[in-house]
């Protein structure tokens, strides 16, 4: 029997058998494998290859749903890695398979389903065709969304708006689909609507200026002015969100797609035939609905309101705001004053429902009448006094007091106080009565002006010091004003630095202004009069008539000068006797000078005696004495000339003495000239020096005058030479 012999396969046959048993794999292709097993975080995939591929469990969207034997589509990235295993990716396979579909949806702008997986930063993570995509929070809905958790696990329709292949990012939007849907519904609804058509809608939203009504895919505006014929402050007074109402289409704009509707247009206009229901002059009742600065609105019926202006609220009171008389919600009776049907306005009057108290005012009150009243109000300009119910008079600040400067009536009056006044003026047309409070008493200024005249002396106490002068109190009620020019201290910058409050001043009345009620005073005039009075008194106690104090002083000075001259003459005589006689010519010159000096001295004594006698007889004769003084001066000049000639001859000592003597004489004469009422001075140096110490000014003048005698000496010399 023959035996079957099995031959071993060759290496080529073996390779062929292995290649036929293994599936072929290529890099970059998508293949299907089976889940072989799960080991930890790795899932082993049987690809029919010599080794199994490994996937991370994170590549599965639902790790808990992984089952062994399930098919899995993967992308082959590499046939072998360092460990000899193929490198595969499920996400890349899913992305590549879905990419064509996503690309088509992006180009055609079609919607696609998406499953919301979880909430992420800035929005939601959704799954689109098995791939992760990002849905921004601003694209979730048309309105802002605050609760993203409500969308997790829900399937929504989205539109792919952006894809980045390199970063593998997909961005989708739900808002764009909703807006497109709304636009479609809005167009369909707009096409269905017709102007003046009555439609049904739902109040969707209420705002300050109106409400938005949903007409089935179209939001129409119901303005606040079209909600009711009567005036409303806010739409919430009539409407509620979610309420179904019927409205009338007022306008429709095909270009902008805007529609406006009205609610009040469904009822008749209340102003139709209003002139028949409310005739001018008729009495009507209504409810106060609102206030304004200029009046109050009164509702006569639903949709019809009239205005009561503040000037039509009271005959007598000055109304600044309607709340002073009326209250919101109160029913009032008014008179129809006017009607403007075109502008839908009715003017009402409240005061017209009562008689006008001013119609007979001139018969009840007259100027000068005394009456009592109650202070009702105090204003900056005066006080209002009620003299009868509904009639008030004004007492101005200037009519409150004769003497005080009233800045506000509360300084002397209180609200509710009873006062006696006098009527100063009655103006029926302007409805004004002017009253006076101070006129009930005698004017103290008038009484004071009778007792004091201009030029009289008064005492004043400083109570105020404005920049222009000083205000003084003459009495408790009378004030006076001293201008700065009339102050004793005139040239001052600040009056407060030289005067003080409460200081008493001696004043003279310069002017009393009865019309202006002012007293002008002067401190300067008072001291002028006082000084003049003192001068007159001093003159009255002076020397006998014909002699002045100046004359007596001149006489005393003359006596002193005579004594000094006698002393000086004695000294000069002694010196001359002691000098040695060297030459006859010199002795002759000295004797001549001495004779001249004695002659001059005798003439001086005679001149003094004559001057004194004349002064005792009459002061006017002093002029003759002065002439004699001038003659004496001429003689002194002659002596100076003789002394100068002696000096020229060569006698130094005699020249010095002779020259000193005329110079002293000249100085004396000059000093006498500066003081016209004094007598001639002596020639000695002793008295001249004493006068220089006592009166420096006289000595200075004497020094200046030394040059003048020298000039006269030269002139005399020329005259002598000529002779």
Number of helices: 14
Number of strand segments: 30
Helical percent range? 25-40%
* Biggest β-sheet: strands ordered side by side in the sheet: 3-2-1-4-5
β-strand amount: 25-35%
Q: State the end-to-end CA separation.
A: 218 Å
Q: What would you call the shape?
A: elongated
Unreliable stretches (pLDDT < 50, length at least 5) are 1-6, 577-602, 617-632, 638-723
* Average pLDDT, all residues: 75
Assembly state: single chain
Can you describe what's shown?
This protein has 723 residues and is of the alpha+beta class. It has 7 domains: 27-108, Nucleic acid-binding proteins (OB fold (Dihydrolipoamide Acetyltransferase, E2P)), CATH 2.40.50; 109-179, OB fold (Dihydrolipoamide Acetyltransferase, E2P), CATH 2.40.50; 193-266, Nucleic acid-binding proteins (OB fold (Dihydrolipoamide Acetyltransferase, E2P)), CATH 2.40.50.140; 274-285 and 306-353, no CATH class; 358-440, Beta Barrel (OB fold (Dihydrolipoamide Acetyltransferase, E2P)); 444-533, Nucleic acid-binding proteins (OB fold (Dihydrolipoamide Acetyltransferase, E2P)), CATH 2.40.50; 549-574 and 583-722. It is built from 14 helices and 30 strands. Strands 3-2-1-4-5 form a 5-stranded antiparallel sheet. Helix 8 runs antiparallel to helix 9 (584-617), helix 9 (584-617) runs antiparallel to helix 10 (622-649) and helix 10 crosses helix 14 (707-722). It is elongated and about 190 Å long.
């Amino acid at each position: 029997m023959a035996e079957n012999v099995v031959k071993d396969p060759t290496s080529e046959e073996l390779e062929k058998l292995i290649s036929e048993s293994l599936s072929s794999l290529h890099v970059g292709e998508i293949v299907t494998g089976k889940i072989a097993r799960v080991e930890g975080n790795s899932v082993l995939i049987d690809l029919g290859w010599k080794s199994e591929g490994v996937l991370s469990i994170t590549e599965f969207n639902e790790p808990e749903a992984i089952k062994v034997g399930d098919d899995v589509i993967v992308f082959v990235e590499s046939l072998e890695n360092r460990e000899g295993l193929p490198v595969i990716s499920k996400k890349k396979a899913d992305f590549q398979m879905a990419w064509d579909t996503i690309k088509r949806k992006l180009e055609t702008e079609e919607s696609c389903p998406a499953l919301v997986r979880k909430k992420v930063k800035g929005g939601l993570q959704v799954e689109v065709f098995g791939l992760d995509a990002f849905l921004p929070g601003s694209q979730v809905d048309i309105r802002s969304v605050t609760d993203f958790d409500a969308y997790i696990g829900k399937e929504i329709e989205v539109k792919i708006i952006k894809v980045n292949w390199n970063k593998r990012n997909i961005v989708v939007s739900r808002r764009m689909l909703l807006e497109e849907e709304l636009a479609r519904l809005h167009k369909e609804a707009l096409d269905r609507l017709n102007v003046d058509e009555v439609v049904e809608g739902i109040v969707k939203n209420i705002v300050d200026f109106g409400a938005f009504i949903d007409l089935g895919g179209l939001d129409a505006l119901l303005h606040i002015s079209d909600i009711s014929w009567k005036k409303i402050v806010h739409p919430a007074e009539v409407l509620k969100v979610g309420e179904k109402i019927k409205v009338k289409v007022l306008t429709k704009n095909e270009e902008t797609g805007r529609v406006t509707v009205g609610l009040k247009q469904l009822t008749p206009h209340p102003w139709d035939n209003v002139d028949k229901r409310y005739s001018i002059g008729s009495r009507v009742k209504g409810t106060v609905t609102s206030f304004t600065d200029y009046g109050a609105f009164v509702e006569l019926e639903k949709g019809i309101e009239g205005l009561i202006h503040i000037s039509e609220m009271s005959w007598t009171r000055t109304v600044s705001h309607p709340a002073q008389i009326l209250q919101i919600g109160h029913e009032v009776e008014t008179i129809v004053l006017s009607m403007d049907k075109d502008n839908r306005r009715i003017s009402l009057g409240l005061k017209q429902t009562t008689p006008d108290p001013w119609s007979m005012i001139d018969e009840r009150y007259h100027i000068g009448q005394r009456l009592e009243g109650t202070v009702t109000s105090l204003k900056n300009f005066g006080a209002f006094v009620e003299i009868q119910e509904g009639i008030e008079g004004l007492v101005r600040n200037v009519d409150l007091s004769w003497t005080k400067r009233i800045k506000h009536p509360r300084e002397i009056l209180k609200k509710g106080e009873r006062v006696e006044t006098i009527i100063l003026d009655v103006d029926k047309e302007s409805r004004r009565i002017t009253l006076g409070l101070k006129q009930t008493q005698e004017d103290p200024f008038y009484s004071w002006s009778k007792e004091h005249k201009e030029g009289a002396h008064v005492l004043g106490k400083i109570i105020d010091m404005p920049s222009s002068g000083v205000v003084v109190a003459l009495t408790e009620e009378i004030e006076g004003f001293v201008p700065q020019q009339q102050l004793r201290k005139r040239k001052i910058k600040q009056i407060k630095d030289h005067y003080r409050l409460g200081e008493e001043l001696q004043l003279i009345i310069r002017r009393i202004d009865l019309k202006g009620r002012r007293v002008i005073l002067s401190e300067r005039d008072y001291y002028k009069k006082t000084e003049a009075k003192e001068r007159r008194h001093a003159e009255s106690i002076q020397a006998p008539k014909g002699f002045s104090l100046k004359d007596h002083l001149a006489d005393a000075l003359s006596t002193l000068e005579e004594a000094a001259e006698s002393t000086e003459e004695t000294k000069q005589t002694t010196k001359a006797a002691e000098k040695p006689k060297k030459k006859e010519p010199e002795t002759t010159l000295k004797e001549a000078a001495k004779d001249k000096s004695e002659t001059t001295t005798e003439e001086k004594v005679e001149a003094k005696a004559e001057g004194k006698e004349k002064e005792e007889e009459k002061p006017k004769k002093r002029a003759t004495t002065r002439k004699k003084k001038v003659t004496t001066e001429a003689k002194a000049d002659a002596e100076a000339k003789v002394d100068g000639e002696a000096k020229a001859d060569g006698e130094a000592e005699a020249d010095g003495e002779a020259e000193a003597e005329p110079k002293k004489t000249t100085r004396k004469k000059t000093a006498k000239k500066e003081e016209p009422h004094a007598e001639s001075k002596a020639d000695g140096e002793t008295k001249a020096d004493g006068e220089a110490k006592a009166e420096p000014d006289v000595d200075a003048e004497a020094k200046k005058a030394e040059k003048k005698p020298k000039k006269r000496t030269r002139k005399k010399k020329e005259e002598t030479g000529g002779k």
